[in-house]
What does this fold into?
Amino acid sequence: MIRSVLIGTGSALPARRVSNAELAAQVDTTDEWIVERTGIRFRHIAGEGETTATLARDAALAALSAAGVTAQDIDLIVLATATPDNTFPATATKVQAMLGIDDCVAFDVAAVCSGFLYAVQVADSMLRSGVQRRALVIGAETFSRILDWEDRTTCVLFGDGAGAIVLEARDTPDDATDARARGILATRLHADGRHNELLYVDGGPSTTGTVGKLRMKGREVFRHAVVNLAAVMEEALAAAGLPTDAVDWVVPHQANARILDATARKLSLPAEKVVMTVDRHANTSAASVPLALDQAVRDGRVVAGQIVVLEAMGGGFTWGAAVLRI
Ligand code: COA
It folds into this structure.
């Protein structure tokens, strides 16, 4: 059967790295509070000339190079973001132009922190339909530009960055337990719009005519996150026909180290199998999963043949998981 096989990963971070101590000089917080409650020590913040599109382009170029394909080999770009360069056109089309791709399908997906999981399922469906053959799936964000830098309950939690993967349609054995069955084995997505007010941006083109700032009731988000993430990972593994102990790595959305620990415990997954980058990147929303995946591939932890589970939850709420064999 046709599956979407991961053939390359890449990522990009803004040049400027900001420590907790630097934030503590601006807002009423401390390094100790941030580390204890979230595990975050650093985040990267976009500077002049760095935008969601430029970070996405750099991550895409790294992924193309790792995959050994050129930009012209790509016929689909799905870019997940909640912080596009402009209200329109889609940032994906800016990235297309920056990469010099004459013609392809290019659009954005908005599902906030779960955006990359949504983008993966959309791209996977399009590749398996046989119409497209090779996709760049990108998560890219500049959340620093929608943060209220006077609100200590939110501004310490987020950072900027981008991650990208190249997926290629390939014929693979039907049986997902066959070691040659590479690629995306199952995906599961959910949304529950009743929780809009727990995590949202208080502006937009059609309401205020402004961009707005991020608002969040952190404690409630935390409670929902652990329950939903554990459930959707179990659901995706069941859909792939794999037991939890077949999992080599979980690459979670990097919101908070305590959420990652609690979710792993709920599934009885050892902490050593969970890729953790939240200490260095903070929460980069749709970029966090592909950023963490790329780091784990580049430092040699995630290797061919392994079973990897991607998962994320974010504003909406939206949440999802994907199971793949590398
Ligand atoms: N520095 C110092 N103190 C802070 C602070 C900061 N940056 N932010 C909040 N506080 C204070 C609060 O004002 C509160 O003080 P009070 O008790 O005097 O009222 C106290 O710390 C505890 O706040 P609370 O919100 O209850 O803390 P918490 O243990 O729930 O941790 C989060 C806060 C945001 C770290 C936590 O709820 C969380 O991680 N939630 C999930 C958020 C998330 O991941 N969202 C993205 C999902 S995509």
